[in-house]
């Protein structure tokens, strides 16, 4: 659903500067917010999406509902874009961004090698009990 991804160059970012003076800080604080990414849906959106973002020295990850986008450490290039069956609730990059761990709401856990885009492990953490 959230598959249209556009990385913005420095000229397209629409920089916004916020001057926050009402805080109990000495002097004025100056913050800069840069838009580096636009994510759009390929279909009409009827509910507000759940958006999560994760950033570390290993890289940046953006989650929108069932879509996962992995970017490099400075958020300048897309390394991996994935779609899942259910909402993604948790992600983690490890080993200097080589591996991505993903937890879906339905209980599925995935381990992926980022560079090769290969799924190394998929495991259901919720056991289906069949009574009969």
Describe this protein's structure.
- It is a single chain.
- With about 130 residues, this protein is mainly beta.
- It has strands at about 5, 15-20, 30-35, 35-40, 50-55, 60-65, 65-70, 80-85, 90-95, 100-105, 110-115, 120-125.
- The model is unreliable at about 15-25 (pLDDT under 50).
- The chain contains no helices and 12 strands.
- Strands 5-6-7-8 form a 4-stranded antiparallel sheet, with no helix packed on it. Strands 9-10-11-12 form a 4-stranded antiparallel sheet, with no helix packed on it. It has a two-stranded antiparallel sheet with strand order 1-4.
Number of DSSP helical runs: 0
Largest sheet: 4 strands, antiparallel
Mean pLDDT: 79
Unreliable runs, pLDDT <50, ≥5 residues? 15-23
Strand content: over 45%
| Order of strands, widest sheet | 5-6-7-8
Q: Residue share in helices?
A: under 10%
Helix/strand/pairing class, anyone?
mainly beta
Gross morphology: globular
| Multimeric state | single chain
Radius of gyration: 18 Å
N→C terminal distance: 37 Å
Element order: H for helix, E for strand = EEEEEEEEEEEE
- Strands, total number: 12
Give a short summary of the structure.
The chain is an all-beta fold and 132 residues long.
